[in-house]
Specification:
CATH topology of one domain: Rossmann fold
Order of helices and strands: HHHEEHHHHH
Shape: elongated
Strand content: 5-15%
CATH superfamily of one domain: P-loop containing nucleotide triphosphate hydrolases
Helix content: 40-55%
CATH architecture of one domain: 3-Layer(aba) Sandwich
Oligomer: single chain
Number of helices: 8
């Protein structure tokens, strides 16, 4: 965090499946009495988060599906205020800025015929929303309900 604050570009990898959970994981690495300060520091230095999952491709191989969150002023405010649960809605409205949710990319893979709907559903971090998107786009899924 200190290195990023000095203007250096810092990359990190975490085992998370969404951009909001990545922000939470970073903050949770610090003791509770420091987390408010860390939220402020992170809101000022974070530039973006990319989360990815690998999906089985139809016909073999893997396709990366990813979520992109660009740290604009709305994202920074939500991080600072501890409202990371609202980051997903900022990502949905920030598509014109290059943001995308995991479901956006999973749906794109399914529509392009790269990934089966069932595989996308399994990899989704918001299954009900993806299922709704499938219905809206006329995509059928052969999956036993959970």
């Amino acid at each position: 965090m200190e290195t990023a604050e000095t203007g250096h570009l810092v990359f990190g990898t975490l085992h998370t499946t969404s951009a909001p959970s990545t922000v939470d994981r970073i903050i949770d690495q610090f003791p509770p009495d420091q987390q408010e300060q860390i939220r402020v520091m992170l809101s000022e230095s974070l530039r973006g988060v990319v989360a990815q999952v690998l999906c089985k491709k139809i016909g073999g191989g893997r396709a990366a599906a990813y979520e992109i969150m660009i740290a604009n002023s709305a994202v920074a405010n939500l991080i600072r205020e501890g409202k990371t649960f609202q980051l997903k809605s900022v990502m949905q409205t920030g598509r014109r800025l290059g943001m995308q949710t995991m479901n956006d990319h999973l749906l794109e893979h399914v529509k392009a015929g790269r990934v089966a709907p069932e595989e996308a559903y399994i990899k989704s971090n918001d299954k009900s929303l993806l299922k709704q998107a499938f219905t809206t786009n006329g995509i059928k899924m052969d999956l036993v309900e959970e």
